[in-house]
Amino acid sequence: MTQLTPDLADRFAGLALGHVTREYPNKLDHVLSGPQDARGPRDLHPVFYGSFDWHSCVHGYWMLAHLYRQFPAIPVASAIRALFDEHLVPERVAGECAYLGRPGALGFERPYGWAWLLKLAAELALHDTPEGRAWSAALQPLAALFAEKFRTFLPLATYPIRAGVHSSTAFAVRLALDYPDPALRALLIETARRWYLADADCQAWEPGGDEFLSPALIEAECMRAALPAAEFRPWFARFLPRLDRREPATLFTPATVSNRADGKIAHLDGLNLSRAWCWRALAGLTADPAAVRQTAQAHIDASLPHLGDDYMGEHWLASFAVLALE
After folding, report:
1. Is 290 within 8 Å of 228 (Cβ atoms)?
2. What total of structural domains would you count in the chain?
3. 226-241: per-residue pLDDT in tens?
4. Cα separation of 59 and 71, whole Å?
């Protein structure tokens, strides 16, 4: 099984360092209320202005923070420190907080970007060094705003969004569960139970042509993280009752990516990597863990060599590769 090594970490971090401060091309999630709002990414987002879009920039920072903590001696470590020292500072973060106060920002990056920001904050909270504590403290006001957004939104969200793209509620809950806020965690678990506890016999009609998540597997991974093991096992057996027969077969078959220069089709590389992440997390709860890990490896093999083939994948795929390899 492919593992995350210092060499791979250095390669992945190098990819991220090449795009988290690359302002263009850029796909903004931005509502204009008048001509005064026609501004560029760096002006709107003092920290997360690169990587083609805001959420990719955020999880690029998450990956850099995670790799720096795991492999502090990799050659690009000094470049990561310099980036964080320049960007993860109170003045810049205050600009990101101010953006959320705009009249058109109520649904900004909901829920995908919200979850990745909390995932980044959770990672920085693990950096028990003077520099890490400074970066974490600087980001905390923004994390607090997104945590409050979750607290406001989840009770209003009558239905989950069972998608394999950014709107996926299972993915958002799964990432947000890592954020160290007991009250928010309790709300996330309550919501996951309300949305998914009655689900059974998932047919897994996937993949869709632009999905980077498996709606079936990410729901299972969400519930694995939300439920006690004794409660999750019977739920999982009901949710995917034919895994011992390798059914639904589509979950065991890596997606084919026909054009990596097409940003939507390139999502399918992310699907392979995120499926591998889920399969590796779930393998020990299946009848044949070794076979499930082989399935995860097949998905990794299909997409890991292509992280830098085109900027449509380069600006985000390495983060999903880190999830898959750990």
Report:
1. no
2. 2
3. 999 999 999 999 999 9
4. 18
Query: What span, in angstroms and rounded, lies between the C-alpha atoms of 284 and 276?
Result: 14
Instruction: Determine, yes or no, domain membership for 177.
Output: no
Taking alpha carbons only, the member of 142, 149, 148, 188 closest to residue 169 is 188
pLDDT at residue number 48: 98
218 in a structural domain:
yes
Tokens 């299909």 correspond to what residue?
Answer: 302
Query: What's the domain range around 50?
Result: 1-31+38-156
pLDDT score at 158? 98
Same domain, 220 and 88: no
Statement to judge: residues 139 and 235 lie in one domain: no
Percent of the chain with pLDDT over 70: 100
CA 160 – CA 313 distance, rounded (Å): 27
Last residue of a domain, one of 104, 135, 156: 156
Query: How many Å is the maximal CA-CA distance in the chain?
Result: 59
Segment 281-301, tens digit of pLDDT: 999 999 999 999 999 999 999
- Angle among Cα 182, 63, 272 to the nearest 5 degrees reads 100
13 and 114: one domain? yes
DSSP 3-state assignment of 220?
A: helix
